[in-house]
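U., I forgot to send this yesterday:
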Amino acid sequence: MLPDLTPAALHARLAAGEDIQLVDVREEMEFDYCRIAGSVLIPLGEIPRRAAEIRTQGPVVLICHHGVRSAQALAYLQHRLGHENLLNLRGGIDAWSLSVDPNVPVY
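Result:
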């Protein structure tokens, strides 16, 4: 099972000022439509080439639409590259929109 956290838990950690890198693995048009403030876009297909942009120390939360692509990115980074600091946003940006920030559009 891959490590994850709920949108509410992420919100609480961000509100507490925790330094968390947010990596959104959706496509550019999805990211342009809606995103969690402070997220950086690295589409899933670009993860192998751009993995050096994802820190290896301190928490990193991977985000996609529903949590599937971000789980794939997490598995790759964890199993292929040895990252141990990753969390998958459970339910993705859709769950974030519905449970944390209704100003983030649902699609």
